[in-house]
Structures
1.
Amino acid sequence: MIDINAIDTAMKAAAIDKSAFDLDPKVRLSEQDLDSLDIFNILLELQDETGVTISDEEIEGLSNLELIIEHFNRAQRD
């Protein structure tokens, strides 16, 4: 199961100099000083951890932590 701890771990693995605990889960990551490469790297780390793949179309919709957590947890249940 993906949670804020897993995202924080992914951010550290992607060498992002921020903590997931300092981010608002409902606000777009791009509005919280994370660029598209940071977001892509977080998603890659989570894919590696979970085995869940994300299509290019889905990446655009995963704009905040809440949506990312929801997507990975739903995919793991299915």
Note: Residues 37 and 43 are 10 Å apart (CA to CA).
2.
Amino acid sequence: MRWSGLRYGTQLAYTILSGGLTYTDPIGHYGISLWAKNITGKVHLLSAVPSTNDFTQLYFADLRTFGINLNVKFDAPAE
């Protein structure tokens, strides 16, 4: 990624692709979610903190992140 020619803490426009799928059982007691963030692995600036002496700390977002969530609902209505 090129940072030369850009002011400290600025970046060009970008697109991030994220998504997820969720299944919940018909009664509503259990669920599972599969998710992914920044699927394409785009390197992008999350934040910039200017400091003294023309120094700026650059913080970058995570690259690809995947996960699974398992859910249990204890107060679901009984049928």
Note: The chain has a mean pLDDT of 83.
3.
Amino acid sequence: MFARWTFASLRSMPLDRRQLKSSAISLCEYDTETQDLTLTFTNGRTYDLSGVPPDLFEGLCNASSAGSYFNTYLRGQY
């Protein structure tokens, strides 16, 4: 049998995936339950960060420069 998915169950999934319009970071994937953040850079490298608070994830997604935000608030801290 196949699993039945509903739109409501998909909305409750903990993964928040966002494409960024950035010259440095192309994709952010954030697990709202574990607070794990995976960043995919435009050069193909990925970074896995743990324990990132939701406000820092939102800040990254809304930053005018995602690369600068990453360097200032996330890099080497998580």
Note: The first helix runs from residue 7 to 11.
4.
Amino acid sequence: MLDSINGVPDAERFLDDRDLERLTPIKRVTYQVMRAQGIGPKYFRIGTRCVYKWSDVVEWIESGAAAKQHVSRPRRSAK
């Protein structure tokens, strides 16, 4: 999925959260939590997969929304 010349994806390519984890400082689980909370970059469902256009992710990061959005993860219950 990445451009073989410089390792940057084509702006219109679809990437999953594993690809984004390699390309951004954000963990895969954080993208999953953001989807559940209705925040984060725009994504598309293709069957059971959730994918992102690289251009949408870059726009979300550049807009500053990535820094402003707070992701609250559910606490694990003590055993």
Note: Strands lie at 14-15, 44-46, 49-53.
